[in-house]
Structure formats: C-alpha cells, structure tokens
Specification:
The structure holds two protein chains of two kinds. Chain A is α/β, with parallel strands linked by helices. Helices cover about 35% and strands about 25% of the residues of chain A. In chain A, strand 4 and strand 5 form a beta hairpin. By secondary structure, chain B is mainly α. In chain B, helix 2 crosses helix 12, helix 5 packs across helix 7 and helix 8 runs antiparallel to helix 9. The chains are: A alpha/beta, B mainly alpha.
C-alpha cells in the first residue's frame, strides 16, 4: 500500500519507521506501519480522530516508554540506527529527536528557565553560553522580540500562542535533529496558528519536522510529504501535492474530500 | 401533549406552581447548606474565644518561660521547648522517609503487587489509634531498648504514627503535578530523576509544605502516643537539654497531666494557660502552612498558586 517505488517518492530519509506495531495492552493501535521521513522537510501525518497518528508520532522518540502497558514492535531508525535497539539510550534519542506537544506545556518557571532547561539537564553550566542559547532559541522561534524584556517573568503569563512558540524554543535549545509536533496549533486561535505555521516553514530549513495535524489545510500549507492514517494503518503516503490532488486510494480521497472524518 | 403545548396561542413567561415549588426547595437547600458551613466558623470562633476568656489572664512572660513547680506559680517554658524539640526530631525522621516512599510510589512504582501491598500497609498503619501506637512505643523503646521515657522514643513513636499521612501528602502533592510537565521534561532528554528534581518537586513544593506543616501541627498537639514514651516529667536541673535520651513532657501532655493528675493549687491557671498557648501554636501552624505553601509556590514557579 505504501508507495516507496523509485521515482514516485524519492526520499533521503532521516527517520525511518519499519514495520512498526504499537500495542496498548491487547489493543493494537498501530498496524505494520512503515514510513520514511525526509531530512529538512516537513512530513505531515493526517487522518481522522483515533486513527493512530499521535500514537505513531510518540513511537518516534520512545515516548511510549512512559506509558504503562504500551508496547512497541518493529524498528525506527535515525540515520540508519534503530532507536529501539537494546543499546539505544532513550535520553540520547530524545535529545536528538525533540517533541512539541498538543497543548503548550510550559514549566511553571520563568521564560528563561524554561528555555535553558534542556541545556542545563544536559550539563551546560556556563551562564554566558546559556544566555546565548536562550536568545538564539527564542529568536529561532520568532519569540525573542516579544519576550526579551521579561525573560524572568513566569512563562505561564504568556498567551497560549506565545507559550507554544516558547515550547518550540525550548526544544530548539537542545539542538535536536528532528522535531516531532503533535497537533501543535490545535489549541490556538487562527493568528497564533499562522505564526506557528510560518515558524515551521523556517524550521524545516535546518530540521526534519514530523507533524501530526487534523487540519488538512494545514498539512497542505506546510508539508512536503503527507501520510494518511486510518484505523492504525498508513493507507497512503506521497508528496503532499499528490495526496491532495491525485490520491490513489479511495479512502484517502473520501477523507480529503470530507466524506468521513 | 407536545402538540398541545406548541399549538397554544402563547406560553406565559411567569412561573407556575411547579416552578415555584422547585425554586422554594432550591432556596431552602441553599439556606441549610449555608448554615452548616457557617456553623463550622461559629464553632471554631466560640471555642477560641472561650479559651481566651479562660486562659488569657494566665499568660505572662514569666508563665511562658519559667519551669513548672510543685507549688503555685509554675510556668510552661520547658514544655514549650520539649514540644518543639520532639516536633523537630520527628520531622527529621518523617520527612525524608515519607518523601522517599511517596516519590517511589507515585513516580516509579508500576501498578502491581508490590505497590498495592505498600499502599495497603500505609493505609492500615494510618488507622492505628495513637494510644495503641503509644503502647507499642512503650514496649519497644521504653522496655525492649531499655531507654526509659525519652524524647527520642516519643519522636520515633510519632514518626510511626505520622508516616502514613505524610506519605499520602507526598503522593497527593506529586499527583497534582500534570503529566504534561513530566512529558515536556522527558521529551527534552531529561532522566526520570532529573525530571523529579527539576520539575515535579518544584511544582509540588507548595502543596508539600502545606501538608507537612499541617501534620506538624498535629504532632505538636499529640498526647496519647507520648504519655508512655516521652514521659510526664521535665528535668529539674536541665530543663532545656539537647540530649534526646531524657524524659520530655510536651505542652499537650502537660495540659492533660495538670488537669488529671497534678496536685498543684493553681491547676486552672496553669491548665487554661497551657490550653490557650497550645491552641495559639496550632493555629499558627495552620496559618503558617498556608503562607509558606503559597510563598514557596511563588518562589519556585514564579506565580501565585
């Protein structure tokens, strides 16, 4: 079902899911999903609620390790190395594969402390380096100008959209290679959403972005590749243009034309 | 019926008898619940005022600082000292253990037999009456260890008595920290321990502190567990000793002892004064718990709770 034939989708992959299965107890949430995610591009995961797209995303940096009863089978490779290999360290993996969550989840600390959190846990002590990292990350997240005068105020005082951009800055501060985003704009208003989308457009120049979205317009606007999920399976994968203009699968067409979902 | 209603020429907006009855019941319920809530305040206010009325004229610097005597005119200085001494000693034992156990149960233990057994044990321990715990302390610390009545024995007995409650306080404080914060931290590559130390505990510190200080108030006023363990006397020669291996009558015990056993002539003066001081202290703990909780929350999270 997945078209990986040469010519149609030629991908230099950064992240590669190979025959991935995810179980919650006896329930199989992801069924034999394989997907290549290219370097320095945006890959969108779309599909109706409960189709497994978030579950799939969380398998890409081992967040399921935290969920009691969750089990992952198959491989996910980062530059060819399996992140589920016995000697793969989830702390290192999550350092290289960052994650932005559905709801902004700032720590109840100052803006500065939020952004410096990652570098600090990875051992950075030097104040000047931390200051520089915080500024660079906030600039990258297009938030610096809005917060530079109140870095020592609580991050909880920011608006929802600012909080989410700060959460992106927080991920950028640990200098990941891949950024996973789980419906990062679903809790935000249209203006904040468009800022996040502009930001994603900038980020893909340097990072590989995998984004779950329930908004097909959003997927069309920001992604190069799109995978359509349904009932835990990847029904179709291709360039975003192809998925939205010439879907090959009936289910994909039904979904993008709004016949279900 | 529906068609009858919809075909009626106009439906009135004023209330009919059915609605009036429901509104009456609503008003009654509001009133009754308000009275119940208000009666708690009245009870506390009456209690405090009565104790002030009885005990206020006993209060003096001399009463608060001098030692009790066999004749009239004794004070409660050593008892206040002992109450704090045993409190601090108890907290030194209780806080680390309950923090450790609570963190393990809430953050590490996966649902399973071990966690269930620990949880069940803690809850069972919590239902042991303090007098039973006091007799247990008597058997173990006083007789078996041959310590006699000691401040240390009293503190250890109070530790056993209050551990379950503090474990619960810890668990509830940690459970109040949203999982999204743990995910954020883990997602940045933090280890579990870093996540607990840098995110979970700082976010829970306000509730933790409030819980600990409230339990401190309870320890301060505890009697039954101490009668047979810390004893009923203070040293005549060294009333303010640091040595934990000595009998240490606390303020709450002194209050009980004065009224039930003592032969001093000014029982009422000493008793009422002790009761008032004890009450003020325990109230102070409650107020301090709230202030410290919100101050620490603000300090660690940059925001008022």
């Amino acid at each position: 079902m997945i078209d990986v034939s040469p010519g149609s989708v030629d991908i230099r992959e950064k992240l590669n899911a190979i025959h991935l299965n995810v179980f919650y107890g006896s329930f199989q949430a992801i069924k034999d999903a394989s997907l290549k995610m290219a370097a320095k591009t945006v890959t969108a995961l779309i599909g109706p609620s409960g189709c497994g797209k978030s579950t799939f995303l969380r398998a890409l940096n081992r967040m399921h390790d935290l969920t009691p009863g969750a089990r992952v089978e198959g491989e996910v490779t980062l530059d060819g190395q399996d992140i589920y290999a016995p000697d793969a360290d989830p702390v290192v993996i999550r350092h290289r594969i960052g994650m932005v969550f559905q709801r902004p989840n700032p720590f109840p600390k100052t803006i500065y402390e939020n952004v410096a959190y990652g570098p600090k846990i990875h051992g950075e002590r030097d104040k000047a380096t931390l200051d520089a990292t915080v500024e660079r990350s906030l600039r990258q997240a297009a938030l610096w100008d809005e917060v530079k005068d109140r870095l020592n105020r609580s991050a909880l005082d920011l608006s929802g959209g600012q909080q989410q951009r700060m959460c992106i800055a927080r991920v950028l501060a640990v200098e990941p290679e891949v950024i996973l985003m789980d419906e990062p704009a679903s809790a935000l208003d249209p203006i904040a959403t468009s800022k996040i989308e502009d930001l994603i457009g900038e980020l893909k120049k340097e990072f590989s972005v995998v984004i779950v979205t329930h908004s097909m317009q959003q997927a069309a606007r920001i992604s190069e590749y799109t995978a359509f999920f349904h009932l835990g399976e990847i029904i179709e994968f291709g360039t975003t243009t192809n998925i939205f203009t010439r879907p090959r699968e009936k289910k994909t067409e039904d979904y993008i034309t709004g016949r279900f979902g | 019926m529906a068609s009858a209603a919809s075909s009626a020429p106009s439906r009135r907006l004023s209330s009919n008898s059915g609605v009036r009855l429901r509104r009456l019941i609503d008003a009654l319920a509001t009133g009754v619940l308000w009275i119940m809530a208000a009666s708690i305040i009245c009870l506390l206010a009456t209690f405090i005022m009565y104790l002030f009325y009885l005990g206020f004229h006993s209060l003096s610097w001399q009463f608060l600082t001098s030692a009790p005597t066999q004749s009239a005119g004794g004070g409660i200085g050593p008892e206040i000292y002992n109450s704090f001494y045993i409190l601090v000693l108890t907290l030194i034992f209780t806080v680390p253990i309950s923090l450790g156990a609570g963190i393990y149960l809430q953050e590490y233990a996966r649902p399973g037999l071990f966690r269930s057994v620990v949880q069940f044990s803690a809850e069972s321990l919590a239902t042991v009456p303090s007098i039973v715990m006091g007799l247990f302390g008597l058997l173990i610390f006083v007789f078996y260890f041959h310590w006699g009545f000691t401040a240390l024995g009293g503190a250890l007995t109070l530790t056993l008595l209050n551990l379950p409650a503090l474990v619960r306080v810890t668990q509830e404080a940690l459970a109040s920290v949203p999982d999204s914060l743990r995910e954020a931290s883990i997602g940045l590559g933090a280890t579990k321990w870093q996540t607990i130390m840098r995110t979970v505990l700082p976010s829970a510190i306000g509730r933790l502190t409030t819980g600990i200080v409230l339990i401190a108030g309870r320890i301060f006023g505890e009697t039954a567990a101490l009668i047979f363990t810390a004893g009923l006397s203070v040293s005549a020669n060294h009333p303010y000793e640091l040595n934990p291996f000595r009998s240490a009558e606390t303020l709450a015990i002194h209050l009980w002892y004065t009224h039930s056993e003592s032969v001093i002539p000014d029982v009422d003066r000493v008793g009422n004064g002790s009761a008032l001081v004890l009450l003020i202290m325990v109230l102070a703990f409650n107020i301090a718990a709230r202030l410290a909780g919100s101050a620490l929350t603000k300090r660690f999270t940059g925001r008022s709770s």
